[in-house]
Amino acid sequence: PGSQGGAEVLGAIREIDPGVRAIATSGSWEDPVMNRPKDFGFDGALPKPFSRDELLNTISQVLST
Q1: What are phi and psi of 7, to 5 degrees?
Q2: What is the pTM of this model?
Q3: Which residue of 7, 10, 38, 57 is most buried, as measured by CB atoms within 10 A?
C-alpha cells in the first residue's frame, strides 16, 4: 500500500524499453490487472499459485504473440 503498483512500474520500464514483454501475477483475481492485463500494459496474466509448467506455458504464449 502506498507504493507504485505493477502497472505503474511497467509504464516506467516501457519508457526505457518499449518492446519489453510482461506478465502480471497475483493471488487475487479481483485485481483488475489480472482480469484485463492488456488494458494495463501487460502481455498476459498468471494467477498464484502456479506450477512450473503453467509458468513456462504462459511465457511461451506471450513470446509467440
Answers
A1: -65, -40
A2: 0.83
A3: 10
